[in-house]
Write a structure and sequence with these properties.
Blueprint lengths: L1 H30 L17 E7 L6 H9 L8 E7 L6 H6 L6 E5 L6 H8 L7 E5 L9 H7 L6 E11 L8 H20 L9 E5 L13 H11 L3 E13 L4 H21 L6 H35 L4 H23 L8 H25 L24
Parallel strand pairs: 1-2, 1-4, 2-3, 5-7
Antiparallel strand pairs: 4-6, 5-6
Length: about 400
């Protein structure tokens, strides 16, 4: 019985160790022998591109976003920019209409139905061969679009995802948890590209061939995750383009990040279930193994954690090691609670509490996301992540 209990305790750690450490190492090892490109040469003739910007009540940022998009380095006669307003109730639509003389188009949804529904609708008015999706709070540096679109000269590529760069317009803001994780995730996607294909695109900045854009896609699922799965179903690869940088402002608060993680993970779980056939290695080979490693095992960790803690509690009745581990977990939870209480006041050595708060919030969000997915709770209604200001489109030297 004790052996079974220790196996239960070890299970989430094994999942996390494999998914976050061993899997990237395996990708790196494979890429050393057979590496695919992560950058593509400049084209002589550029395809037509439609940039779509789904938004809801973005009056504070939409003008700056559109100014940045109008400055991108891409032939103007090959570029269409469409803002799809999810029935915004502020001045967003009026601001977008002011850009009409400069070629920006507005599609207003008659009622608020969520981001995926908006993306389904906007595809019907897009004229481009390549659809590029971005968000109202994201800044695309001038040269990023060409680098993203250049990937489509490879006929085997169906989806190209940009490289998120977590930045802040708040002086002295470190936000190491969020920034560090984004950098790690981009590294994993780059390795996946070298080996075969990424298993999910960045919702902040990605392109897809128009025939692959499903206008009947379920409104409660995650399209940026599903686009890579749909591409694989049709025999295409999906890639991460290192040079196609998107500047992503950090979330305004830990509470905002907590709600974002619940929403994205619960929708991701539902999307994975919807496309569960792609987990079959006998049909989808290496891609199925990568999907299991990158997504399923990372998410399975959150399900296993409560069982591991219960098992530790049982083992602690007779084991000093189990009692020590429980004490360590308790100390971590306490540090996280202190970090939540300190909020942005954490400075210097106190940042250890901020990191603990980030970890605690992530675990709580993971548990809630699984509960929503298991109980069938839907989250189709889109609530955009409010972020800290608008970063300059100049790429930071640290990136």
């Amino acid at each position: 019985m004790h052996l079974v209990a220790w196996i239960v305790v070890a299970a989430p750690m094994v999942c996390a160790l494999y998914a976050y450490a061993l899997y990237p190492l395996l990708l790196y090892a494979v890429s050393r022998f057979a590496s695919r490109p992560t950058a593509w040469p400049v084209l002589d003739a550029w395809p037509t591109v439609s940039i779509t910007v789904p938004c809801y009540n973005e009056e504070a940022s939409i003008a700056v976003t559109l100014e940045a998009l109008l400055r991108v380095d891409y032939p103007a006669d090959r570029l269409q920019i469409v803002v799809v307003s999810d029935a915004s109730t502020d001045q967003t639509d009026d601001i977008v209409r002011e850009f009409a003389p400069r070629g920006v188009e507005l599609l207003r949804m008659p009622e608020r139905k969520g981001k995926s529904a908006a993306e389904n609708a906007v595809a019907l008015v897009c004229r481009g061969e390549i659809l590029v999706n971005t968000d109202a709070s994201i800044r695309i540096p001038r040269g990023s679009l060409k680098k993203l679109v250049a990937a489509f000269q490879d006929p085997t590529i169906g989806v190209a995802s940009g490289r998120d760069a977590s930045v802040s317009s708040v002086p002295g803001d470190a936000a190491g948890g969020e920034s560090g994780y984004v950098g790690y995730e981009m590294l994993v996607r780059s390795l996946e590209t070298r080996v075969e294909s990424i298993v999910g695109a960045s919702g902040c900045f990605y392109g897809i061939r128009k025939p692959l854009h499903d206008t009947t896609f379920p409104e409660d699922l995650s399209r940026d995750f599903a686009c890579a799965l749909i591409a694989r179903e049709h025999g295409y690869r999906s890639v991460s383009v290192d040079g196609a940088i998107a500047l992503v402002p950090r979330t305004a608060s830990l509470d905002s990040e907590y709600r974002r993680k619940i929403r994205t993970m619960s929708r991701g779980l539902n999307t994975l279930w919807f496309k569960r056939a792609l987990l079959n290695p006998f049909r989808y080979g290496r891609f199925a193994l990568m999907l299991t490693s990158h997504k399923l095992l990372r998410w399975l960790y959150y399900v296993l954690i409560p069982f591991a803690i219960i098992s530790l509690g049982i083992l602690s009745l007779h084991s000093g090691v189990a009692r020590a581990l429980l004490a360590l977990i308790g100390a971590g939870v306490l540090c996280g609670a202190i970090g939540l209480a300190l909020g942005n006041a954490a400075r210097g050595a106190a940042r250890i509490f901020s990191l603990a708060a980030f970890v605690l919030a992530s675990h709580a969000a993971g548990g809630v996301a699984w509960w929503r997915a298991i109980t069938g709770s839907k989250s189709a209604m889109w609530e955009p992540t409010r972020r800290r200001g608008a970063p300059d489109t100049q790429v930071p030297t640290a990136i």
